[in-house]
Write a structure and sequence with these properties.
By secondary structure, this protein is mostly helical. The chain has 14 helices and six strands. GO terms for molecular function: zinc ion binding.
């Protein structure tokens, strides 16, 4: 049942299995039978999914994405990292192209058809072709009519094809070959059964209809590697725009739109003149917008907000009230004595300071950069509040010195040295 090629064949083998093991009333197998078209290859073996098994493509791409992006990433960062993934794929493709052009292919046999495959296919696909071509030695051919052949395995089991025999239809005059395994419909490469018939009939090259362009060395033309915007001026494409901020999306959209316009407009002088006039009009409007913005910035610098002027006046007044000419106003004495003189002086100086503050804008103070968590200032209690234990001398138990500097030890050494001398 693993290598059935038609729905009728699968239905027959499925019924035989249920009868053999008595599973007609099993709910699990009934549920599997209802969804058989989703997992049984017989029902989608004519669909093109080259060399893939179930969700291999999506799972493989998910693994690549997880190395570069995460669910919490912004859209702009996702686009930038996706560009890195694309660059990585292009680098891998260039490496494959280099290995395809630089190194020779090792063939399994000396059949002309394998030699033709080594010239036509890329290196990686040729090795797949060579592995498939090796399986031709595991089949025996027996005619089944004028244009049909049975391929019977001469071993007990053939990898990927099982124990069954396959029917191949060959129309040599038309160059048309068909095998019931449908490998060409699925992978875009002929199977080992057709290869065996081609070598038996003496065909020395793979028919053109069975060579997909995507598997050949001419899949990507050399002129397609050039820049798609090569017809546009370089200063119009780049314009010094940094492609690392939120304006990237706007820049990309406008570049694509103007590139499309340029292709459509350069066909005649009338369309070119029309586009040129519109560009000049847009440039004049952009200059007007820039001029208005420049004037608004100058007005902001010349006339700051009233709240900033008031704050500046209060700060300066407090500084002057705190001390002028070395005289400090005593706290809590009002305006009597020397402080009254300070107050009189302040009234004269403050208007001048306000007038100066109107012309000079005071910006916000620089924001401090706090790295990490701020340390908490808390009262230490318990064991943390006790004083650090001091070390004691092991000889005299004093905390002022240690045993190496103990006077009693030094005196004892001197006494011993005197006795030894006597």
């Amino acid at each position: 049942m693993n290598h059935t090629v038609t729905p009728d064949e699968f239905e027959a083998t499925w019924t035989a299995m249920l009868d053999k093991y008595g599973l007609q009333n099993n709910e699990h197998f009934q549920r599997l039978y209802m969804m058989r078209s989703s997992f049984v290859p017989t029902y989608y073996m004519h669909c093109f999914y080259p060399f893939l098994q179930s969700t291999q493509r999506s799972e493989g791409f998910n693994v690549v994405l997880k190395k570069y992006v995460n669910p919490n990433m912004l859209v702009l960062h996702f686009v930038k990292h996706y560009q890195k993934i694309q660059d990585k794929c292009l680098v891998a493709q260039d490496g494959q192209d280099f290995r395809t052009d630089d190194r020779d292919r090792t063939r399994w046999s000396r059949y002309p058809i394998e030699k033709h495959a080594s010239v036509v296919y890329t290196k990686k696909l040729f090795y797949r072709f060579s592995k498939e071509f090796e399986k031709t030695a595991e089949y025996d051919v027996s005619p089944a009519g004028q244009f049909q052949f049975w391929l019977v395995p001469n071993n007990n089991y053939v990898y990927c094809y099982g124990k069954r025999k396959y029917l191949v239809t060959a129309l040599e005059d038309e160059g048309s070959y068909y095998c019931e395994c449908s490998k060409f419909d699925r992978d875009g490469m002929i199977c080992c059964h057709i290869m065996e018939i081609l070598t038996r009939l003496g065909v020395k090259a793979i028919p053109e209809r069975y060579i997909l362009k995507r598997w050949t060395q001419e899949a990507i033309p050399e002129n397609d590697s050039a820049n798609s915007n090569a017809h546009l001026p370089a200063d119009f494409i780049a314009r010094g725009m940094p492609l690392n901020n939120r304006k990237t999306l706007w820049f990309t959209n406008l570049s694509t739109t103007f590139a499309t316009f340029a292709v459509d407009v350069c066909v005649s002088k009338e369309t070119y003149s029309l586009m040129d006039n519109h560009i000049k009009l847009m440039c004049s409007e952009l200059d007007e917008i820039k001029r208005r913005r420049r004037l608004s910035r100058q007005k902001v610098h010349a006339n700051p907000e009233p709240s900033e002027v008031a704050n500046m006046s209060i700060i300066v007044a407090n500084d002057i009230a705190a001390g002028v000419n070395g005289v400090v106003a005593p706290a809590g004495e009002g305006h009597s004595g020397p402080s009254s003189e300070v107050g009189v002086a302040t009234t004269g100086v403050l208007p001048a300071i306000q007038a100066g503050a109107m012309t000079n804008t005071v910006g916000n103070p620089p924001r401090s950069k706090v790295k990490g968590r701020k340390k908490e200032k808390r009262l230490k209690k318990g064991m943390n509040a006790e004083a650090k234990r001091k070390n004691k001398c092991s000889i005299c138990k004093s905390t002022n010195h240690n045993a190496a500097r103990c006077l009693e030890k030094v005196a004892e050494k001197l006494t011993k040295s005197g006795e030894a001398a006597a």
